[in-house]
Amino acid sequence: MALKVGDKMPLFTATDSNGQLFDVSNFAGKALVIYFYPKDDTPGCTIQACTFRDQYEDFKALGAEVIGISSDDETSHKKFASRYKLPFILLSDGSKKLRRLFGVPNDLLGLIPGRVTYVIDKEGIIRLVFNSMSSKIHIDKALQILKKI
Questions:
Q1: Phi/psi of residue 13, each to 5°?
Q2: Rounded to the nearest 5 degrees, what angle is found at the Cα of 29, between the Cα atoms of 23 and 35?
Q3: Are the C-beta atoms of residues 132 and 10 closer than 8 Å to each other?
Q4: Number of domains in the chain
Q5: For 47, left (φ over 0), alpha (ψ -120 to 50), or beta?
Q6: Among 42, 53, 73, 116, which is 20 to 30 Å from 134 by CA?
Q7: Are the C-beta atoms of 149 and 59 separated by less than 8 Å?
Q8: Which of 116, 113, 128, 142 shows the shortest CA–CA distance to 52?
Q9: Are 138 and 16 within 8 A, CB to CB?
Q10: Closest by alpha carbon to 55, among 115, 123, 141, 130?
């Protein structure tokens, strides 16, 4: 079942690009932008990550942390983050448990993991669910919502 606006964000743990355990409960009281993307180093995903990177300070100024999630492993994430100087957290979801937890669908043909962005407020309530394979729009949508909350 897909999470929707107004739902409480589920608590979860995952491994980050440094092989460390990430626990989302450590970010309680902080706004989050969690975006699921298909794969490191693919054209659309690279554009999306670099756009988040280029506007990362805007997110920080609004009190939000950005977290990217794909099924790629820690080694892939580490290379991807290093190559493009990504300042935000990347989490590995090889088992797809986080995709299932959030209810992230595949693309229309069911072949490619979906691209969905969630904005979560300081109380842990989901304020935006944006599902689109168009990579750059996610950043603008997330910033618009953060400015309102």
A1: -130, 155
A2: 55
A3: no
A4: 1
A5: alpha
A6: 73
A7: no
A8: 142
A9: no
A10: 141
Within a domain: 2: no
Catalytic machinery residues: 45
Per-residue pLDDT tens, the chain, 149 aa: give them. 789 999 999 999 999 999 999 999 999 999 999 999 999 999 999 999 999 999 999 999 999 999 999 999 999 999 999 999 999 999 999 999 999 999 998 766 667 788 999 999 999 999 999 998 887 889 999 999 999 99
Structural domain containing residue 72 = 13-148
With respect to residue 3, please indicate whether it lies within any of the assigned structural domains.
no
Give alpha helix (H) positions in 55-135.
Answer: 56-61, 74-84, 97-102
- Whether the CA torsion 78, 83, 85, 91 is positive or negative: it is negative
CATH number at residue 51: 3.40.30.10
